[in-house]
Each structure stands twice: as structure tokens, then as C-alpha cells.
């Protein structure tokens, strides 16, 4: 009996599709194997760890666990399906009598949870600060109408300036590059995946930093 017929109904169709793609890419590494337990990992920005456990060889039920966000939110994930496909191919004896899969209790990473809370608080504070800045700008709009408008920069520079402004750091063309470096380090401690952020947020920060550091260096040469 195939894995699909025995356990496929426990997984959402799209999860099985994504899991099959991971299996075909060969990202699954089984680090420990026995008749009742399998430990595996998968290549990712944040290391993915998967565990399959059974009380005995003959027991039709086994538990699965993963440290990814999908599993933490209460759903069997693509990583578990990818591991099951690998086990079916390399260690089929483990699945011979298995017909039911259960989710193991989620182990909360206290440090990661604390970092996430800090990140959310930081974002909330920056949002409130931005609201106040917008309010102040509206109040002073009439007085600024007679001032010489700020020089308009290319879209990528404007986008980078806005990114740092929204996150609490006002950067101008006269800003010392060292100030920008300090701003990046401060934000990196918030947006880095190990600190509760995400890979995409860290990439965006680096992209905006690269644009502005080149811009500031060019200004200082003039």
C-alpha cells in the first residue's frame, strides 16, 4: 500500500504538492534512523528539524513534529510529507504497519517568542511615531509651502530614504555614512531571522542600505 493511500488524507493537497517538490530536490537529510524513530533535517534559511516516533514497530499510529511555522500553527507541513516520501523510498519498513499520524505537542522556542514580541513592539512603536510625524507634517504644511522643495531623487533612493524614515532614521544627502551604518545595525537586530524577523525583511534592509551608502559616498565626493 502506498504512502498516499495510507496517510495522504491527513495532508492538504497543496501541502503534498510542495512536499513532493522538496523531496524531488533532495533537500531531506535523515540523521538518525531506527525501527521506531526517525530524525531528519532539511536545508533552509532557518534549519528545519523533523521527527517521526512510534511506540513499536507494529503500532499503526505514530507522531510527527516539525519546527516550521505551518506546524506551529497546527497543521501538518510540507517538510513532514517530504520526509515521509524519503522514508518510503529509503526505509520503507518504518511505514509498513502505519496507517495513522498524529501531531506531537508543539515545543515553544522561548527565545524566539521573546524576539518576536520585541520585534512586534518595535514595529508598533515605529508605527505610532510615524503617525505623529505625519500629523506634525500636516500641521506645518502651510508654513512649508513657501520653502524651497526638497530635491527629488531617483525612485530607488526615494524608496530607501522612506524605508529608513518609517523605521525611525532620517537620512539626508549630508548625513555621515557612519550614521547610516549605525542605523542599519540597529534595524538588523530587529529584522534578522534569528531575532524574530524574516529573511525577506533582512534582504529589503540590505537593499535599501546598499542604495543609500552608495548615494552618500557619491555626495561626499562632490
Number of helices: 9
Give, in order, the helices and strands. Answer: HHEEEEHHEHHHHH
Q: What is the 3D shape?
A: elongated
State the share of residues found in helices, binned by percent. Answer: 40-55%
Q: What about the largest sheet?
A: 5 strands, mixed
Question: In total, how many beta strands?
Answer: 5
Structural class by secondary-structure content: alpha+beta
- Main-sheet strand order equals 1-2-3-4-5
Query: Taking all residues together, what is the mean pLDDT?
Result: 88
How large is the radius of gyration? 25 Å
Percent of residues in β-strands: 5-15%
End-to-end Cα distance, whole Å, is 74 Å
Uncertain stretches of 5 or more adjacent residues: none
Structure in words:
With 222 residues, the chain is an alpha+beta fold. The protein is 54% helix and 13% strand. It has helices at 3-7, 13-25, 69-72, 78-90, 110-139, 141-144, 155-166, 177-191, 199-221, and strands spanning 28-33, 37-42, 48-53, 61-66, 100-103. A hairpin with a 5-residue loop joins strand 2 and strand 3. The longest helix has 30 residues, at 110-139.
Task: List its traits.
alpha+beta, 9 helices, elongated
What's the structural blueprint in terms of helices and strands?
Elements: H1 3-7, H2 13-25, E1 28-33, E2 37-42, E3 48-53, E4 61-66, H3 69-72, H4 78-90, E5 100-103, H5 110-139, H6 141-144, H7 155-166, H8 177-191, H9 199-221
Parallel strand pairs: 4-5
Antiparallel strand pairs: 1-2, 2-3, 3-4
Helix pairs in contact: 2-4, 7-9, 8-9
Amino acid at each position: 500500500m502506498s504512502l498516499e493511500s495510507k496517510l495522504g488524507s491527513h495532508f492538504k493537497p497543496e501541502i503534498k504538492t510542495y512536499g513532493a517538490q522538496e523531496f524531488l530536490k533532495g533537500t531531506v537529510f535523515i540523521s538518525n534512523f531506527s525501527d521506531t524513530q526517525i530524525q531528519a533535517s532539511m536545508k533552509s534559511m532557518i534549519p528545519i528539524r523533523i521527527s517521526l516516533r512510534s511506540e513499536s514497530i507494529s503500532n499503526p499510529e505514530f507522531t510527527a513534529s516539525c519546527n516550521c511555522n505551518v506546524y506551529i500553527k497546527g497543521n501538518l507541513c510540507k517538510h513532514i510529507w517530504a520526509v515521509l516520501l524519503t522514508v518510503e523510498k529509503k526505509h520503507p519498513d518504518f511505514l509498513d504497519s502505519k496507517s495513522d499520524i498524529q501531531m506531537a505537542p508543539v515545543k515553544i522556542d522561548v527565545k524566539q517568542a521573546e524576539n518576536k514580541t520585541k520585534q512586534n513592539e518595535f514595529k508598533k512603536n515605529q508605527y505610532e511615531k510615524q503617525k505623529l510625524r505625519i500629523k506634525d507634517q500636516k500641521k506645518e504644511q502651510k508654513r512649508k509651502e513657501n520653502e524651497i522643495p526638497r530635491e527629488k531623487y531617483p525612485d530607488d533612493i526615494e524608496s530607501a530614504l522612506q524605508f529608513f524614515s518609517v523605521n525611525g532614521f532620517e537620512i539626508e544627502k549630508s548625513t555621515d555614512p557612519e550614521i547610516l551604518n549605525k542605523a542599519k545595525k540597529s534595524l538588523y537586530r530587529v529584522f534578522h531571522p534569528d531575532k524574530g524577523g524574516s529573511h525577506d525583511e533582512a534582504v529589503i534592509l540590505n537593499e535599501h542600505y546598499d542604495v543609500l551608502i552608495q548615494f552618500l559616498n557619491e555626495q561626499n565626493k562632490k
